[in-house]
From TrEMBL:
<dbReference type="InterPro" id="IPR036291">
    <property type="entry name" value="NAD(P)-bd_dom_sf"/>
</dbReference>
<protein>
    <submittedName>
        <fullName>NAD(P)H-binding protein</fullName>
    </submittedName>
</protein>
<dbReference type="Pfam" id="PF13460">
    <property type="entry name" value="NAD_binding_10"/>
</dbReference>
<feature type="domain" description="NAD(P)-binding">
    <location>
        <begin position="7"/>
        <end position="195"/>
    </location>
</feature>
<dbReference type="InterPro" id="IPR016040">
    <property type="entry name" value="NAD(P)-bd_dom"/>
</dbReference>
<dbReference type="InterPro" id="IPR051606">
    <property type="entry name" value="Polyketide_Oxido-like"/>
</dbReference>
Amino acid sequence: MNIVVFGAGGRAGRQAVAEARRRGHQVTAVVRDPARHGDLTDARTVAGDVTDAHGVAHVAAGHDAALSAAVDLSVPPYDFFTTSARALATGLAQAGVRRLVVVGIASVLPGASGVPLMDEPGFPSEYRPLSLGHAAGLDELRARDLDWAYVAPAGDFDHDGTRSGRYRIADHADPTSRITHADFALALLDEIDTPRHHRAVVGVREQSPTTP
């Protein structure tokens, strides 16, 4: 397949590119400044802005699916995630790309109580603006005619762990859960290769060798 990856310069994006290439896919890696990402040698690297619908349509043309791991922490989260969701939905439709997989955040997943993790007692207030931004972007996707999957770690990323080659779908958010970016990328690419979740939010957690 031909896959376009927005936000390919970040940790999640890089691992998604690596996993896609490992599976034999052709990848277009979209970053803001290709000159800063000369190490993305196993993909075609192009400049692009995920908040610009026309630009999204241009770089996505001719691809079979799209993946977005893009984030811009210099912009208020609500503004970035709503604008990027609208631009992706509009631009991908113009390019004829129907499938989109988005890297999400655990706090929008239901917690153990059934309400979103960000609404449970004790959720850190400093993370609430980012969580609300993600939630607003998710609402934008829900309002669009696009086959999307919003895939989030059940808790957070294990930045120092190694690839195990395993993961499992999470029943709910778990702040203690950790998964490596490489294992998380397996779930992202599985949703492109053999989509199981359509217009749905998916939590992903680590799977130990003893976990069924």
